[in-house]
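User: What would this chain look like folded?
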Amino acid sequence: SSLFWLALGPLIGLLQTFQFLTPSAMEFLSGFSLSYGKIRVFHTNIVVYGWIATSFISAILYIIPKLSETELRLPQLAYWAGWIWNIGLLLNIVLIWAVIVGHPLLSMQPYEYAEAPMLVDLFVVVSAVMVIASVHLTVLKRKRKGLYVAIWYLVGGLYTTAITYLGGNFVVLAFTGLGNQILHAWWLHNAVGMFVTPLGVGIAYYLIPKASQQPLYSHRLSILGFWTLMIFYPATGVHHVLQSPMPTWRSKLAVISAVLLAIPVLA
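Assistant: Here's the prediction, encoded as structure tokens.
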């Protein structure tokens, strides 16, 4: 499924490029209710939730049992999570294309990377809970005593992804005005820092030593990188709205945290 979305997402991005460069030649798309803005949402959602998310989850389901020296627990749970995730993504495309206005479950939300209607969000949450349950139980039942750094990143990344997604797709709805925009900025930035970064780095910590046939230079340094990422990254998202009338301490915390990210990056 990840390879399917990987092929489709960039193709939609290419179509969007032609819309931008030769708008008159692409006017026929308006007859199919495919505006430039709508196609952009298709492109970003498919790349983020179709390609990146499914490839990360598949890598996690392979790497965690390997490093734990045990079989994946509740494999059927993880299997059905894949179906639920992909059905939710297809539903997302259909509902965004249909533009149902005013419905609490079926209407598109006005937040970047969180445009999915609430019904789709529920599909994502159910699928994520199933994956987390399978993976976490596998780690708890592991035969290897120690926890290699990739496990820290992959399991930690699953939880930070869940927390970030809940904040950016559900909690944000409880706020209005500046509070709403601050929380949206937090979500927008942490979709990278608390989802793509820890899971991507965790996969790299498994693949690079495997490919180079060399042990990790320093496991202690890697653990330092993990904890400083988890401590400093969440507060940086607000630097997207620094010039807004937010509390001074909040903007300072965002800037300081952004500078301190040099620690996990260098680690």
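The mean pLDDT is 94. If you want, I can go into more detail on any region.
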